[in-house]
Amino acid sequence: MSREQARLNQDVRDSSTTSLLDIEVLKKFDVAGPRYTSYPTADRFVESFGPEQHAVWLAKRGSGGLRRPLSVYVHLPFCNTICYYCGCNKVVTKDRSKAAKYLRYLEKEVQLQTKLLDDPSIAQMHWGGGTPTFLSGAELRDLAQMLCTYFDRSSELECSIEVDPRGVSEESVWLLAELGFNRLSVGVQDFDREVQRAINRMQSEAQTAQVIATARAAGFRSVNVDLIYGLPKQTLTAFDRTLDKVIALSPDRLAIYNYAHLPHVFKPQRRIDAADLPDVDTRLQIFSLAVQRLTQAGYVHIGLDHFAKAQDDLAVAQRRGRLHRNFQGYSTHVDSDLLGLGVSSISALGPTFSQNVRTLDEYYDRLDANTLPTMRGIALTDDDLVRRNVILALMCHFELAFDSLEIAHLINFREYFETELQELEAFVDAGLVTVEGDCLTITERGRHLVRAICMVFDRRLRQQRMRASYSKVV
Ligand SMILES: C[S@@+](CC[C@H](N)C(=O)[O-])C[C@H]1O[C@@H](n2cnc3c(N)ncnc32)[C@H](O)[C@@H]1O
Ligand code: SF4
Fold it and tell me: Residue with the nearest Cα to atom 3 of ligand 1?
């Protein structure tokens, strides 16, 4: 073991003993589970909730009570090359004309959707992918103008876009600023050359630094960087060097995702040799190191996989109890409706979720038939709404005041969640959760297990497990 490796191991052990991350506890309680960007999770959506139901809820936005602000998500699925790890809904192609066809159909969808909206003002917009910057400058401009003709943008509009720095020129970044984008999310994953070769994503630090510096010069309010831990060929020492480089770039926010290796679902992942993946201990040590280094560098661990500078809106919102969670992760936009546009995008309207078809062919067929491309969705039951609030509070604030739920949902918390509170005792005994008076708190040590703690309150998961064990018995 090299001296550098020994120092890192000691750092990780130190962070464990100072209770930032207790790797043994993580190994015992951490289970594969949802990231709860929604409750119920998307795998619970049903096909009986289709275009008609989506249309009803879109049209209902204007009726009764308080109208929630509207956010818009636009999915742009094209990429130039394939990154082997990728689990996003994307179309890898060199054929640029595919984008032009997609944009024509996207406008058709926008027409169908906005016809049902009585108020087209929007408070937030996000373009994700795939790679939105696959589009040419002229296409980016046309798309932004097209959306402006159907939606009213407030001057305060928070406008964000995902950018793959490979092949993004300074001109493109200036163009994005001119089109009104003020938040940039930059994909990095890892700066180590060996890791980059194993994931088929060669990306230099210089390219990345150039994009970030240009974004700052062009007036972007916030820059986010995405990293992934658990990738093939990753080691603690090499990831430490990646962290050095990322911290030097000084992004306002960071997402450090846990690599989801599901080769049976995402075919390109079959090109990753499972023998190259770091073992559980190394993965946890890498994440532990990231938490430690980023905390030392002045970042706040917002929750799960997100970090932000203390003065960033996300950290401010968390301190003020106004943090929210949606399909893009943590957000400062409390309680807004979301309209998803493009293939596979998800909408959240009132107490419903709905998702568009996933493939381009299905998308074009639906729109040729003048039908909304909704594929599936769900209308939340009263029970779902209670549990959604519980999971949101835990994910965003690590704390739950029983009386706020009792008043909002007319329940007796301890009676309603008797089974769940019993199940939580194992977490209480391990010092990960406290239940005192009318408040459930996830302790500092328990924060890294917030997913596992939320899973206790996930009734649909419980039902699924019961069905699975029942079918094993019979
Ligand atoms: C749509 S992609 C990013 C935008 C752009 N295409 C790029 O690659 O820079 C969004 C992010 O999802 C994350 N991601 C993709 N596949 C993943 C996987 N299998 N496990 C964990 N994170 C993943 C990556 O961090 C990626 O930057
Ligand atoms: S990570 Fe980004 S660029 Fe790579 S395949 Fe996925 S969406 Fe495309």
Answer: 187
Residue 164 in contact with ligand 1 by CB distance below 6 A = yes
Name 91's bridge partners.
Answer: 78
The CATH class that applies to domain 42-341 reads: alpha beta
Closest by CA to 41, choosing from 400, 375, 237, 327, is 327
Tell me what the pLDDT averaged over the chain comes to.
Answer: 91
What integer is the mean pLDDT of 419-429?
Answer: 95
In this structure, which residue's CA is closest to atom 12 in ligand 1? 88
Note the pLDDT tens digit of each residue in 22-50: 778 877 887 778 889 899 999 999 999 99
List the CATH code of the domain at 382-473: 1.10.10.920
With a CB cutoff of 8 Å and minimum separation 6, the contacts of 462 are none
Q: Is 42-341's fold the same as 382-473's?
A: no
Q: Which residues on adjacent β-strands are paired with residue 339?
A: 72
User: What pLDDT is attached to residue 208?
Assistant: 98
Contact in structure between 129 and 76 (CB atoms under 8 Å): yes
Q: Dump pLDDT digits (tens) for 373-385.
A: 999 999 999 999 9
Cα–Cα distance between 326 and 331 in angstroms, integer?
Answer: 7
Owner of token pair 């936005």: 61
Cβ count near 437 (within 10 Å): 9
User: Could you say which ligand is closest to the alpha carbon of residue 90?
Assistant: 2
Query: Is the whole model's pTM more than 0.90, yes or no?
Result: yes
* Ligand 1 atom nearest residue 187's Cα: 9
Which of 257, 258, 270, 307 best tests ligand 1's pocket when mutated (most atoms within 8 Å of CB)? 257
Do the Cβ atoms of 178 and 220 come closer than 8 Å? Answer: no
The mean pLDDT of 357-379, rounded to a whole number, is 98
Domain spans, the chain: 42-341, 382-473
CA–CA–CA angle 286, 288, 291 (5° rounding): 110
Residue with CA at minimum distance from ligand 2 atom 2: 130
Kindly state if the Cβ of 77 falls inside 6 Å of ligand 1. no
Residues comprising the chain, all counted: 474
Average the pLDDT over 86-101 and give the result: 95
**59 and 52 in contact (C-beta within 8 Å)?**
no
Residue-wise pLDDT for 271-300, tens only, equals 999 999 999 899 989 999 999 999 999 999
Pocket test for ligand 1, best of 81, 83, 88 (most atoms within 8 A of CB): 88
Q: Is 86 in the pocket of ligand 2 (CB under 6 A)?
A: yes
